[in-house]
Amino acid sequence: MVDLLVLVRHGKAEPKGPEGDLARELTPDGVAALEEAYPRIFATLEPVGELELWSSPAARAERTAEVAADALGVDPMDIVPHDSLYEQDEDGFLSELSCVDGSTVVAVGHVPFMRNMVERLCGEDVPFGKGTVAAIDFPTGRLAAGQARLLWLREA
Question: Is 13:30 a contact under the CB 8 Å cutoff?
């Protein structure tokens, strides 16, 4: 099971266009804000074991994951797409996390999914603005509702 979960909301994105929601990119200002904030935010992260970087397949989440990868010193080619993050499939996502053995997962996605996961796992209703990062610990070793602890929440 995952030991440390880091939830990341994508940065400021373009409006929906004719290409559809999946194709929406980050705005130039959105990228710049993340590139400024993420080195500082992720410097405080103390990964447990191997670090895996997951992303929603939406272009805005993938670009956010690339900026996070750079801040974390992870090869962007190692970003793993997870449909559950785009589909906001909480049970599917938790099932995927249960297959991770003793490591840190950084997952980039959307709201309300990110906010809902913090509330489901930690019992805390927190704001989750664009670019926000939340670190969650599992001291009981269980992914069950209310069994995790919110370590920190940082806005980009």
Answer: yes
CA distance 19 to 124: 36
Which tens digit of pLDDT belongs to each residue from 56-86?
A: 999 999 999 999 999 999 999 999 999 999 9
For 92-115, b/e burial (b = at least 16 CB within 10 A) is: ebbebbeebeeebbbbbbbeebbb
Task: Name the 3-class secondary structure at 26.
Answer: strand
Tell me how many domains the chain contains.
1
Task: Give the separation between CA 126 and CA 133, rounded to whole angstroms.
Answer: 11
Structure-block tokens of residue 152:
């920190």
CATH number of the domain within which 83 lies: 3.40.50.1240
Q: What is the pTM (predicted TM-score) of this model? A: 0.96
65's tokens: 């994951």
